[in-house]
Write a structure and sequence with these properties.
140 residues, single chain, globular, two-stranded antiparallel ribbon
Length: 140
């Protein structure tokens, strides 16, 4: 049996969001599609959500609440496409900007949205590195 260790959240209903990422090819993966800028996160897609930190502080700031989930999901989907070679690293800024846009649209507290945005811009380069792809594990 082959499996992968996951943490965080799993998309239950397939959903989509229009992005500025329009490229010459259609990307279709098992859990993510990108078609003429339309980012589709399919049922079963797993995403982590917010960065580590004291849970109580993240909750107070609204960084862990319901208002953050769509932004984190779309952001992680684009990062996955970059990390797995479907998109160029050039698109990281678009992913970061999109997350911020969705957080504000979903009424995340503005200072919290700004903290999250600045954090991913400054500290999340490792997350698109191909060496950080999810490992495939084997059980007997």
């Amino acid at each position: 049996m082959r499996y992968q260790k996951v943490q965080g959240f799993r998309v239950y209903n397939t959903w989509s969001y229009q992005t500025e990422i329009v490229i010459n090819v259609i990307i279709r993966t098992y859990y993510i599609d990108l078609i003429e800028g339309l980012l589709v996160m399919k049922r079963g897609f797993c995403f982590e959500g917010s960065a580590p930190g004291p849970k109580w502080l993240l909750k107070v700031l609204g960084i862990l609440g319901k208002k953050s989930k769509r932004g984190y999901c779309a952001h992680d989907a684009i990062y996955d496409l970059i990390k797995n070679g479907h998109l160029e690293p050039f698109w990281k800024k678009s992913a970061d900007d999109l997350m911020h846009e969705i957080h504000l649209k979903d009424k995340m507290v503005k200072p919290a949205a700004k903290i999250v945005y600045k954090s991913v811009v400054k500290f999340a380069d490792f997350a698109i590195d191909k060496s950080n792809r999810m490992k495939i594990l084997i059980a007997p």
